[in-house]
Amino acid sequence: MxxxxxxxxxxxxxxxxxxxxxxxxxALTNADKVHRxxxxxxxPVCDGQSVAESDVPIAKAIRTxxxxxxxxxxxxxxxxxxxxxxxxxxxxxxxxRSGLTGLVWVTPILAGILAIFLLASTLKKWQGxxxxxxxxxxxxxxxxxxxxxxxxxxAWILIAQFTGNRGxxxxxxxxxxxxxxxxxxxxxxxxxxxxxxxxxxxxxxxPSNVExxxxxxxxxxxxxxxxxxxxxxxxxxEIDPTYPDVRVFRASxxxxxxxxxxxxxxxxxxxxxxxPPIVWDLLSNxxxxxxxxxxxxxxxxxxxxxxxxDSGILRDDEDASxxxxxxxxxxxxxxxxLIEAAVESLDAALILEPMHPNALAYRALxxxxxxxxxxxxxxxxxxxxELINPPELLVQLLQTQGLLN
Length: 405
Known about the structure:
Elements: H1 5-22, H2 30-39, H3 57-71, H4 76-87, H5 103-126, H6 142-164, H7 180-188, H8 192-205, H9 210-222, H10 226-239, H11 244-257, H12 260-271, H13 277-285, H14 288-298, H15 302-315, H16 320-331, H17 336-352, H18 357-370, H19 374-385, H20 392-400
């Protein structure tokens, strides 16, 4: 029996491998299970991207549907079957056991049969060319027979298991090329030149990738290629008009071009979307909405300017900057019936942020110039003077009216 100990050792190892691969590995959470299923389904309208990777609306809808079915307790196979019935068999990366894809399952069997013949030939050589005898339980060749039969079976199970779970980005060798998500992440920290190269690579894999189009356009815009930027922004909106990032970038582009109406329309469209916090922070920090509104009012489009500001206030009624800008635009009409509304907006802004520089400066000017409230204006100026590094434009505005030295 000593002679075959190594064979028994190999059999034990193969058995352990088979058990580890076939043993059920349940997802830790429902979210893990949703991601696992989505990662093994192809996006119906994308090229080379899974449902888990894609950000197009249909992929988001499928992920939502998967989450619903997972929460309802449906099995993976039931979820797959439901989605295949809706979107066709091409959505499922797991190969079928019939037709051409059936070769994936037949090939391991053929390989196993070949392995048996090769091993039998080897055993025959071990016996000095004598015919191979049928072993019995008492025969020492039983471990050899187990080995001969076990290896092909193990090979079939392992190959079938790995092939059935292979994703869209896997090669037969097991190598995994960079996915579009990986490329997009790399682009975030790359130089402008390399950003464009990485976005180009993503768009070769998936021409409909809205994120790549949007951020390639933004990179073009920042590096002075305005025409290429416009083309990318337009293409991104045509593919997915609900992608928030492209709206704020395109609004910036239109504002720089002097097309304030189009800039306003894109910001208002953004207000209707569920944008991530970073997009709202970008809009707020750049004061883009306020600048567009001010430009519209300056060219006589006060109604459009107020519409833009009110859209933002409706989304966030605690935005002191928008309330202050609204009050200032109303005050600049010098219409008696609008002055009260102007003061209300400025008061509301200062209730939210008592030391908001714009609201303090604007209310001081309204009180001093329009309401002839000298005492109220001085009170606002005193608070304004307590600010550290107030905006220079506000300082100059107050100085022109003699409210600051």
